[in-house]
Amino acid sequence: MKKPVIYCDFDGTVTEKDNIIAIMKTFAPPGWERIKDRILSGEISIRKGVGELFSLLPSEQKNQIAEFAVEQARIREGFGEFVSFTRKEGIPLYIVSGGIDFFVHPVLSEYGPFDGIFCNGADFGGETIRILWPNSCDESCENDCGCCKPSVIRRLGHGDDYFKIVIGDSVTDLEAAKQADFVLARDLLLEKCEEWGLPHSPFENFLDCIETIIKRTGVKEQAC
Ligand code: MG
Ligand code: ZN
Question: Tell me, what CATH number does 19's domain have?
Fold first, then answer.
């Protein structure tokens, strides 16, 4: 039996909604929607668009924005149980997020430890927030992703003895999903998995994810 390993998205997966959109709605000056629309239409890359969005926000609002993110983020049902399940079964769990560390880490702080959290960074030294990209695309990806999920998975280097599971909700998870042995998908990613014929199951909450992973990988049911 192969050993399971999980790469899990954050925005819209661990949290019910996209945190960057919530932050922009509250803190950005008018006009940010045009940048968002250009990202969604593919006119500009995620990296360029997210960089532009945060450059609209003054650095001095850092703490307010982080506090707002923690306050408004609603964690999807069953996530705590899901993390405990992976810890108990010894399944490596990585969070791979296109979000920014100053809100991703505080939102996740009460749920860890994780085997890794990969996301973008931020520099508050200038007048406005400058996004940093410690996980940008490797030579096999030309999408200018920002936080490049397939590159992160390649870098982690889990070989053929692993059963790779990707959990996500959006088109930004598709390239990672293509590298997975199995995908747990909702929303747009679910449509994309169907379109691409990727092995997948839908999920609504993380209790569904536990159930599917037990079925698919043969890990034992929790006897607690
Ligand atoms: Mg997402
Ligand atoms: Zn990439």
Answer: 3.40.50.1000
User: pTM for the full model?
Assistant: 0.93
Which residue is associated with the tokens 């079925």? 215
Q: What is the pLDDT of residue 223?
A: 46
Which residues neighbour ligand 2 (ion) by CB within 5 Å? Answer: 137, 141, 143, 145, 148
Residues 50-87: tens digit of each pLDDT: 999 999 999 999 999 999 999 999 999 999 999 999 99
Confidence of residue 224 (pLDDT cuts 50, 70, 90): very low
Looking at all shown ligands, the one closest to residue 20's CA atom is: 1
Domain that holds residue 203: 3-223
DSSP state of 222: P
Q: Which ligand is nearest to the CA of 9?
A: 1
* Number of domains observed in the structure of the chain: 1
DSSP conformation letters of 131-175: EE-TT---TT--S--SS-HHHHHHHHT--TTEEEEEEE-SGGGHH
